[in-house]
Amino acid sequence: MQDLLKGKRIVVTGSASGIGWETAKILTDQGAEVLGIDVNKNFDHVEEFYRADLSDPRAIDALIDVLPDGIDGLVNNAGLPPTRPAEQLIAINLLAVKRLTLGLVPKLRDNASIVNVASLAGFGWPQAVEAIRASETLDFGGIKDFMLTHNITNEGGRSYFFTKEALIVWTMQNRWTWRNRGIRINSVSPGPVNTPIIGDFLETLGARAEEDARVMDRPGEAADIAPVIAFMLSDLSQWIRGTNIPTDGGMSSNILCEMHGL
Ligand SMILES: NC(=O)c1ccc[n+]([C@@H]2O[C@H](COP(=O)([O-])OP(=O)(O)OC[C@H]3O[C@@H](n4cnc5c(N)ncnc54)[C@H](O)[C@@H]3O)[C@@H](O)[C@H]2O)c1
Q1: Where would a tag sit more exposed on the chain, N or C end, judged by fewer CB atoms within 10 A?
Q2: In the prediction, which pLDDT does 205 show?
Q3: How many whole angstroms from 80 Cα to the centroid of ligand 1?
Q4: Test site for ligand 1: of 17, 60, 160, 229, most ligand atoms within 8 A of the Cβ
Q5: What distance in Å separates the CA atoms of residue 92 and residue 121, rounded to the nearest whole number?
Q6: Cα of 93 to ligand 1 centre, how many Å?
Q7: Cβ neighbours, 10 Å, residue 190
């Protein structure tokens, strides 16, 4: 398919590496004007690049001010792996996504599409509903207290899992928030993908990662994920709303079948 995104202006966070880099590339190839955001400078495949540290709420607010109007798509992709401090993970993988999205809504065109890059790690969200509900009012200043109250640490990658669980739920909750303007929100959940942070996942998950590697035919590549994000930004997916799209080589189905003895 060609020109799937012709004339669309799309913001991509974490555009300097991995899935975000590949997404910027395919969006540009499909005719979009890509506005890239990252803490690391990289001008590949972007029309404009904005350097910003999304762990800082003031930097997010400044971005919201300087980004242009007329945005047709927002890809919330920037994220840290489970080896990084839990406080940063909650700030970047969850709170920054919410703050940037809510702040940019007035600059989105009608019928815009928002795509959150979650993870197979968010699959277990039904077991975390209490903490997820408590995180609805969480802001950057309250992260430490929240972690203590809900026992969210890096042990076994829990902080990373929590951020992705909460992101999948927030996406569902906002299925119809901007329906009167045709604006929709969905998440895409990759399984293990060969990017610079894959080693961090292997280190954190240990035996679980070895088991994943045993059952999978191959790890994913960024090029397996980016076309799905492109489709979710395109007008072809207009009736997909508030849902999570596993893009994981069959891993989430494998977990479900094993869980239910099917
Ligand atoms: N690689 C995997 O196995 C995998 C699996 C599931 C989900 N994901 C998710 O995919 C997304 C992209 O990950 P990736 O594998 O491409 O990793 P990556 O490290 O290659 O890319 C992440 C990008 O986010 C940027 N970033 C990190 N912190 C930032 C900050 N504070 N401000 C601005 N930019 C920041 C980084 O500089 C980097 O360019 C993440 O949200 C990650 O959780 C990855």
Answers
A1: C
A2: 86
A3: 5
A4: 17
A5: 16
A6: 9
A7: 25
Contacts of 153 (CB under 8 A, 6+ apart): 86, 147, 159
Q: Which residue type, as a one-letter code, is found at position 87?
A: E
- Find the farthest-apart pair of alpha carbons in the chain and give their distance in angstroms, rounded: 52
Q: What residue spans define the domains of the chain?
A: 9-257
Rounded to two decimals, what is the model's pTM?
0.98
Residue 235's pLDDT band, with cuts at 50, 70 and 90, is very high
CATH code that applies to domain 9-257: 3.40.50.720
Q: What are the tens digits of pLDDT across the range 194-210?
A: 999 999 988 898 888 88
Averaged pLDDT for residues 236-250? 98
Q: Is the Cβ–Cβ distance between 46 and 36 less than 8 Å?
A: yes
Nearest atom, ligand 1, residue 194 CA: 1
Q: Taking the CA atoms of 135, 119, 155 and 38 in sequence, report the sign of the dihedral they define.
A: negative
Q: Which residues of 194-218 are buried (b: 16+ CB within 10 A; e: fewer)?
A: ebebbebbbebbeeebeebeeebee
Mean pLDDT of the 114-134 span: 98
Percent of the chain with pLDDT over 70: 100
Cβ atoms of 162 and 152 closer than 8 Å: yes
Question: Side-chain half-sphere of 90: how many Cα atoms within 13 Å?
Answer: 25
Predicted local confidence at residue 210, as pLDDT? 86
Q: Which atom of ligand 1 is nearest to the CA of 160?
A: 43
Question: Ligand 1 pocket: which residues have CB below 6 Å?
Answer: 14, 16-20, 38-40, 52-55, 77-80, 92, 117, 119, 190, 192-193, 195-198, 201
